[in-house]
Write a structure and sequence with these properties.
By secondary structure, the chain is mainly α. Helix 1 runs antiparallel to helix 2, helix 4 runs antiparallel to helix 5 and helix 7 crosses helix 8. It has 8 helices and 2 strands.
Amino acid sequence: MGVAAFLITAIMMEENILTIKYNYWNIMDGCLAITFLYIGYLYHRYEAVLSNINLMSMTIVPVLMLLSKYIIVSKQIYCYWGPIDISNYIIFFTDNILAIILIITISKRLPNIKPITWMGSRALVYYFLCGGVPLILSIIAQKVGFIYEDCYLKVIFMLSLVYIVISTLTWIIYKYIPWTTGKFTWKR
């Protein structure tokens, strides 16, 4: 399914079947995202086997990543997600897989940090809330005259405020309405 979605996206882009003007419901973004969801599924399924492969070492992957970035810049290859503008799918796919391997490799070597683990185990709710909460907070900030576009410290303040509000809402959801996340037992 993931490979099919990737091929559909590539064909649509090459044949200009769906241009940005007619990209209803971001169908091309969705097809491309399904590809990466499928890769995540495959990784999770074969994680024990993949974790033993020495290919994911901390020396090889960053070098390949730099090589990939050099090729992208020197050949002026477009690899943009939103809106999708990919001029070379092989380079795009290779670059993204290398980045994923690098992030997984680094993440597995990090110590277990409780707040990050808590947030990661509730990532779906965070992802759901990350659309509306920043939008609502930016509208409120604009209404009260808090302009943060030209001041980096104000941007960090807004980012922190978004994180606090989303974390609080996530805690409330998991505490009081856990059935919305697929958890059917109450934890007290």
